[in-house]
Design brief:
Shape: elongated
Strand content: under 5%
Number of domains: 2
Largest sheet: none
Distance between the termini: 57 Å
Order of helices and strands: HHHHHH
Helix content: over 70%
Number of strands: 0
Length: 179
Amino acid sequence: MPARSKILMLPPEIKAELDRRLITGSFANYEAQTEWLNEQLREAGLEISISRSAVHNYGQGFESRIAAIKIATEQAKAITDAVGDDAGKMGNALISLVQEKAFDVLVRMTDLDPADMDFNKLTVAIAKLNNAAVAQKKWQTEIKKKATVAADEVVKVAKAGGLPKDKAEWIKKKILGIV
């Protein structure tokens, strides 16, 4: 198993600044980024040195993850624009996808090096994910209740205006998405 990247073990503020510098520098000039990083480490009193190839390898992986996120975001936006998201279908799909990935990590935990994994973060992420799923379902229930109340009001007004009962019920079903 390869050694854990020194970059992943950097102090959070230095790593965050490296990430920012990589992004704003368009993932280029790794020589300068490496010099800057090693200077920061010396100033912080850390007696480690990080090679240009380590920064480059980290930068390539980081750039790939950002590109994947951009593509996923663009695709989600295109799907939402094309089909709408009235019932929170995109949110449900996203929650399901992340739940699936988290479950996969849990299943594969016996094959993973515990040093490469932060179990506490994983459990917190799963808890937050479950909270999001509950909130999504609650929102859907509230929207359905509001739609039902609105549909009932429309039926009352339509009937009072002389619309036949079957036509009023058809309108209600149309509003609730049954037809």
